[in-house]
Amino acid sequence: PPDLCSVPPEILVPAANETLELVLGSQVELNCTVRWAGTEHCQPIPTWSKDGQWLGSGSSQDTVWSGQNSSEQLLASVLQLNLTQDADFGVFACWISNATATFTLRRAEAVGHVPAVLAALLVLLLLVLLAVLYVQCRLNALLWYRDRYGELEINDGKLYDAYVSHTNAPDDRKFIHFIVKPQLENRHGYKLFLDEQNILPNSEPSADLIMNVSRCRRLIVVLSVAYLEQEWCNSSFR
After folding, report:
1. Closest CA to 54 of 92, 10, 20
2. What does pTM read for this prediction?
3. Which among 90, 138, 154, 170 has most CB atoms closer than 10 A?
4. Tens of pLDDT along 29-88?
5. May I ask the CATH class of domain 160-237?
6. Residues 125-183 pLDDT 10s
7. Residue range 10-107 in CATH 3.20.170.30
């Protein structure tokens, strides 16, 4: 009959050479389990090595035998490690008779809060930048959109985009009808309300003036010399 003590054990755990990435300060147990087809009188003694150097009795090792039947037994050897320094990492090998199981321990960098904080600050900075761009460039963006795609849908009940207040002086009328109106109405598509009457004929705003201004989204004042020379402007402008 064959000598059962010479039969090499079958490694059950680990199934293959195992590599573990652990952070500094971790505690780990390396489990080496084999199936031994032999009798009690030829039980081998498991040994551990690190980077080719045998670990002595100072290492924390537990060995457990369990018999499945008279000719087959299980052996589990557990090595307990505290990874407190870089020197604790390396290649550990479990030797049982002529079978070897290898564990490679590598140090993994601990994930700190710095990347998360930097990402949050970056998102916050991006939001602030977008808000500033929105405030500074909103009107230009709306004008660009209007020039490219046409009238924006605005449901505010207004009939005109702007109320233009000016005098009937020849220079002011030329400026309105030859510069302002062609640029705003013909080129940019704005709808203007041109009031040819005196804005404050009785020093108090009339009902028609209030109604006309309320129909417009903006007020454009052609602040010329003739405009400032109006009687009501003497007390309203300094």
Report:
1. 92
2. 0.46
3. 90
4. 999 998 877 665 667 788 999 999 998 776 788 877 776 566 678 888 999 999 999 999
5. alpha beta
6. 999 999 998 888 887 777 777 677 766 556 677 888 899 988 888 899 899 899 998 98
7. no
Residue keyed to tokens 């589990």? 76
- Residue 238 carries which side chain, given as an amino acid letter? R
Please, are residues 145 and 154 in contact by the beta-carbon 8 Å criterion? no
> Hey, where are the domains in the chain?
10-107, 160-237
